[in-house]
Amino acid sequence: MKKLVLTGAAGRLGSYLREPLTRMCDELVSTDIVADIGKLYDGESYVQADLTDLAAMEAIVKDATMVVHFGAIGDEAPWDDILRSNIIGAYNVWEAAYRQGVKRVVYASSVHAVGMHLKTDTIGLDAPHRPDTYYGLAKCFAEDLASLYWDKRGIESVCMRIFSCAQATNARSIGTWLSYDDLIHLVERSIDSAVVGFTKVWGLSNNDRAVVDNSKAGHLGFRPKDNAEQFAKDVFAKTPPLDNKDLANLCIGGPFATVELGNSGVAALGVVNDKKTT
């Protein structure tokens, strides 16, 4: 295709998407709030912009076929911060896409939209929203926004409910890991599938201990290859016995299910910042 836009290009996940996306289009426009993201790939340009600026979003998505929307606060945070970046920012992306005739938004949603469901429920994609934080609530809003803009304005969306896209370093991640290669594969299938309408899909690898059912998203052709079982022995050997009454162990949102609203959930996960550098 001619032009793709990637928001959140300066983030850890965005860093792994930039190069693969340049191979899917003539022009990749990467954007984030930082002044610079370093060396650019062939076919990539960078525009500094704030998601809360609708006019800036309109200018960036002009003539784009699709937007890959990863820009947002990637953790639980105070309400006013979530409102601006994750809720108003999401509205501005879809509204700009509508005004400029963009075909599809590929959105980095999250398990935290349904994080209070129990692991043992093995929920499907049709399970009701049950957010675990303000962060998760914003993901619910964006998913419903995507559904509305498909029903009323014809903008297709794929909402990728990403679990643990980071190194598998804790017991929870053995069931929830999404490798970077599988993330790239998921985004590629979300872009090159001919018709998606409004689609939700779980973003996790082919883990033996997966806690959700992805069967209703088969039309995307997302077939993850990696499996966190390769890390299980070492991770479990270092993990103390889990409290089976602790919601952080029972709910699919993990520690996000127990943090106080407005306080970081990522802090309890030990996420390694292995951001890709060009």
UniProtKB/TrEMBL annotation:
It comes from the Bacteria. The keyword Magnesium does not apply. Transmembrane segments: none annotated. Keywords: NAD, Oxidoreductase. It is an enzyme of class 1 (oxidoreductase). Residues 5-164 form the NAD-dependent epimerase/dehydratase domain. InterPro entries: Epimerase_deHydtase (IPR001509), NAD(P)-bd_dom_sf (IPR036291). Belongs to the NAD(P)-dependent epimerase/dehydratase family. This is Uronate dehydrogenase. It comes from Yoonia vestfoldensis. The lineage of its organism: Bacteria, Pseudomonadati, Pseudomonadota, Alphaproteobacteria, Rhodobacterales. The gene is udh.
